[in-house]
Amino acid sequence: MSDFILANEPAIRILGFVSVLSLMAVWETLATRRHQTIKRLLRWPANLAIVVLGTLAIRLLFPLAAVGAAIYASEQGWGLLNLVSIPGWVTVVLAIIALDLAIYFQHRIFHAVPWFWRLHRMHHADLEFDVTTGLRFHPLEIVLSMAIKMAVVVLVGAPALAVVVFEVLLNASSLFNHGNVRLPQRVDRWLRLLLVTPDMHRVHHSAIQRETDSNFGFSVSWWDRLFGTYRAQPEKGHLGMTIGIEDFRTERDLRLDQMLIQPFRRTKKWVRHSE
């Protein structure tokens, strides 16, 4: 099974991406959580185009990316999990957990360090919150994130299978938890004991900084609860909260060219947005 997954990695990634994106887009249409004042036609082309640019940047700079790093580390015997003798499936599970924890702390760092925030704020500058917001990351952030991920893969000694599974799950989780979808409150309450739900992650996209600095997890909700960054609900409610960043609130800011130069634009309060 693992050989099949590794041999068909590109197809699995593309199939997973297209399937989850399509499912969430239909779900958003059938069970919308928040009414959107800015239509998809104004936002989606740039949000989808930025994915293409980020993917091209990764393939150009890191042809084998994190999977290649995992294979090389395994061949060299590098990394913590390559130094111990445990069943293969346990190694995969531990590696996935370690990678998810690393992504959580990376996310917090990208909020705390001014220059990293300049890159990451493009993700938060979307004026609506839906499935394509989960794709909206600056290519420079994508490249930096991949370099960090490769370093973590080598340090942990994550097997290649774990890296593929983790990246597919992370991508699917990002699409899901950015969905503008309505879940029954009881379902959301129980589901977020394990996973990051759209209502949980939407708080993170609030224009209020203390809410933005919460709910950093992408996949599981454990890390926010464990490290004290969990916030259950936005102060103004999900229908009353403002999405985005104070300094980037025009439709012009949603254009692809403006998204690409946004990290280099000075604003009144460029380090962090205000409450």
TrEMBL record:
Descriptive protein name: Sterol desaturase family protein
An individual GO BP term: lipid biosynthetic process
UniProt xrefs under PANTHER family: ALKYLGLYCEROL MONOOXYGENASE (PTHR21624:SF1), STEROL DESATURASE-RELATED PROTEIN (PTHR21624)
A Gene Ontology term for the protein's cellular component: endomembrane system
Record keywords, A-Z: Lipid metabolism, Membrane, Oxidoreductase, Transmembrane, Transmembrane helix
Domain Fatty acid hydroxylase, first and last residues per copy: 92-229
Residue ranges of the TM segments: 12-30, 50-74, 86-105, 146-170
Keyword Oxidoreductase: yes
Bilayer disposition of the protein: Multi-pass membrane protein
Protein's organism: Nitrincola iocasae
A GO term, aspect molecular function: iron ion binding
Any one Pfam family match given in the protein's UniProt record, by short name: FA_hydroxylase
Compartments reported by the entry: Endomembrane system
